[in-house]
Every structure is written in C-alpha cells, then in structure tokens.
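Duplicate of #3305? Posting structure anyway:
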C-alpha cells in the first residue's frame, strides 16, 4: 500500500549524460514505464520523477576530451535521451530535475547531516557521511559493514574515518565547475543528489517506490538510505525495485568487449517496438540476453500479433460489424493476475500471445462475433499498459493516404476478377514499393505492412 491511499510517489535514478543512451538504459526505463502505466491503469495517481546527473566526474572528463563546456555536453546527451525514449514510447516523467538546479537544497541537506553528527569534514576539506553513525547500513544489500569493507572495492582515501564513508561535498579542482558552500567552492557527491531531489520533488520524507538498475543497490541506493534516514529518522522508501542486467550473446555488455550498443545504432536495424517487445519478454528482475537472433524472434512474434489485429480490423470494416466497448474479460483477468505478481511482463506477454492465437482460430472458423472485443483487449493490454504502440491502423483511418491504398487493393481485386493478371501484378508491385503486401483471404484481399 502507498503512503497516501490512491497516490504513488515514484522516483527512478536517471542517466549521467556523458554518452549516448544504451541497451541497459532501455531496459531500465522501459521496465519502470510499464510499472507506472499499470499503476495508472489500476487507478492510482502516479507522480513520476526521474533525474539527470548533469555534473559528475565522467561528464567533466568527457567535456575535456571533446573540448565542450560541461553544460553543453550534458544537454546534448539529454536531448538524445529524449529522442530514443520517445521512439521506445516511454511516457515522459512528470519532471526531470537536474543536479545543477538543486545546489541550495543539497547544501541544506548536508548541513542537516553535519548538525546531527552524521557527516564530517575531512583533512582535505571534503564533507563525508559516516556510515558507522547509521545502524542500518547494509540493510538493502543484506550485508554487514565488515563484510562490505572486506568484499567491496572502495575508493581509498586516508582522510576518511572508514573506507565506506562517502563524499557529500567535494572541493573543486582547478578547471572544474564549482558552487559556493559553507565548506568552500565545490560540487555535490553522487549519492546526495537523489535523496535531495526525490524528497523535494515528491514532497515526502518517505516515498513509495524508488527504482533503478541492479548495479545501483550498492553503493548508490544503500548510501541514499543511510543519509536520508539519518536526516529524517523515517524510512526513506517503502519499496525498492531493481531491474536485472542486459547481456549481449550471453556476455556482459561492455565497451572493452566490443559488444556495447547504443539505441540509435540498434534502431538502424530494428524498429523500436521490436526492441521494447523483447525487453518485456523477460521478468524485470532477471537478466535478459540481447542478440540479433533474439531480435529476429521478437520481430516475428510482435508482427504476428499486429498482423492478426489488423486482419480483425479488416474483417470488421469489410463486414460492417458495429463498434463495441467490451473486452475479453478472461484474458484481462489473467493479464492482471500476472502483473499483480511483481509486474511479471514475461507471463503477461504470454497471455497476450494466447489471445492472439485464439482470435486467429476464430477467424479461421469464420466465428466473427466479438472481434471488436478482441481488438479492444489488445489495445488495452498491449498498447495502453505494456506501451507497445501499434502502427496506425489502415482500416480504422479514413484519410487520403489510406483510402488511396485501399482503393489500389480494390482495383487489383477487380483486375483479378477480370483475369487481367498483368494489371493485378503491377498494382501488387506498386503496393510493395510503398511497404505493403496484399494477402488474399476468404473475406477478400487484406492489406498488411511488409
């Protein structure tokens, strides 16, 4: 249950905009987009926040490499992120706060931790959080402080009281961006930004859902819990959701292995909805393997669903079947059952595929009652909730382009009936050049996309 009935406050850690958006990002933000869509379908009012870490060591280093100002660099990659997100049909967040817009609030947060004795100033002048002052440190990753020190690679800093202590404020180095603070010119550490932005944007000391990739559990989210609960004395987030990793041909995605792909590269070969479909065929917590073979299979599976829905729409139009507002309740109930079980999109997609097979069997048997209900159910489950955007329907649009295409199909049909095979073949080739195929069915010629 959410903190406030009917209202879900949701914060997802966003990208550090120093490079193009990649497969791992696609997996994360598609997962949380579906979770948001499903909660909204269940009539929750969702406030969704996703930040951009627009000041960071990686951004500073990349700006030097490219001789581009930090702000210009980060804004360029933020723009590219929005472009690929739109292609994946990811709903925009209610707000995308930037770290650089939150410096005063971050300074206030750090000051509060110092006052409570949870943070200290190092000999070098940085401000660090003391993990030993927080009794619950390690509860998210289910590890004790001694185990974390022994088993985790942490930055060695002789100024720290404990190797796990982490920077809240870093004094600036020559040539770096900086802001004035009570502790000197500097910039925020990584972890403090999300605690500050989530609580301020969601107007809550305890938020409902905090999410991100599995790699953020430690240290990022562990540190967020420590600093937030040290300041407020309240639980920071009721629910933590982490999506699994993406592998490529069963190997971890890595630039050093040469299997690191940006979304813009992938979209040159595959439609974004094919990528989205593949990402939803695995439960969000489990790793998902990404390969050309898997994409080919995903394309075939998703295309078969689209083709069946468009065939139903063709028959509805051909038979003048009146519109209906109903759904196939059996499949809606089964779909909800799977989504209520920890947002299991893997099984939810399987339910949709069963629905597709049943619809196709009914069409083959010439059992046409309920075609509108099938169409409505696909739109609800596949498009509205899973966000798999259908191509604009040929048969539910009456603009000049579509009417012209359908007119060509009718001309071909007349030519075939007149045994003018040459003209029929010319029309077929013309339609293929425009990206469409004609399938002759028992209901007449049906136009479909290649």
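Output from current build:
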């Amino acid at each position: 249950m959410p903190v406030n009935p009917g209202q879900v406050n949701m914060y997802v850690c966003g990208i550090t905009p120093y490079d193009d958006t990649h497969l791992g990002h696609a997996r994360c933000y598609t997962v949380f987009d579906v979770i948001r869509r499903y909660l909204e379908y269940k009539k929750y009012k969702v406030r969704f926040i996703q930040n951009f870490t627009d000041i960071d060591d990686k951004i500073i280093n990349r700006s030097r490499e490219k001789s581009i100002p930090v702000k210009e660099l980060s804004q360029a990659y933020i723009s590219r992120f929005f472009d690929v997100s739109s292609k994946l049909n990811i709903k925009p967040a209610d707000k995308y706060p930037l770290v650089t817009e939150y410096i005063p609030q971050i300074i206030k947060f750090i000051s509060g931790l110092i006052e409570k004795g949870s943070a200290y100033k190092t000999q070098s002048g940085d401000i660090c959080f003391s993990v030993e002052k927080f009794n619950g440190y390690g509860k998210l990753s289910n590890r004790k402080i001694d185990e974390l020190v022994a088993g985790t690679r942490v930055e060695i800093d002789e100024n720290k009281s404990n190797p796990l202590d982490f920077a809240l404020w870093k004094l600036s180095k020559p040539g770096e961006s900086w802001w004035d603070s009570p502790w000197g010119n500097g910039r925020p550490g990584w972890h403090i930004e999300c605690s500050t932005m989530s609580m301020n944007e969601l107007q809550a000391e305890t938020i409902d859902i905090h999410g991100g990739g599995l790699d953020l559990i430690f240290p990022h989210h562990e540190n967020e819990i420590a600093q937030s609960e040290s300041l407020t004395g309240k639980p920071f987030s009721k629910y933590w959701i982490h999506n699994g990793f993406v592998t490529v041909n069963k190997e971890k995605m890595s630039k050093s292995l040469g299997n690191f792909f940006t979304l813009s590269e992938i979209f040159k070969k595959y439609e974004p909805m094919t990528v989205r479909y593949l990402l939803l065929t695995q439960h969000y917590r489990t790793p998902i393997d990404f390969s050309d073979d898997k994409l080919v299979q995903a394309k075939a599976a998703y295309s078969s669903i689209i083709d069946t829905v468009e065939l139903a729409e063709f028959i509805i139009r051909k038979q003048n079947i009146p519109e209906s507002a109903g759904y196939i309740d059996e499949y809606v109930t089964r779909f909800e059952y799977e989504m209520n079980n920890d947002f299991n999109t893997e099984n939810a997609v399987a339910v949709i595929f069963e629905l597709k097979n049943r619809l196709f069997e009914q069409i083959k048997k010439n059992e046409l009652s309920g075609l509108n209900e099938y169409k409505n159910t696909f739109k609800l489950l596949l498009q509205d909730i899973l966000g798999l955007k259908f191509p604009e329907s040929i048969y539910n649009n009456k603009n000049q382009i579509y009417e012209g295409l359908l007119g060509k199909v009718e001309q071909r049909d007349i030519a075939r009936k007149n045994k003018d095979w040459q003209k029929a073949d010319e029309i077929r080739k013309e339609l293929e050049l425009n990206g469409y195929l004609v399938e002759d069915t028992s209901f007449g010629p049906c136009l479909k996309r290649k």
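Confirmed duplicate; merging threads. The chain has a mean pLDDT of 92. The radius of gyration is 27 Å.
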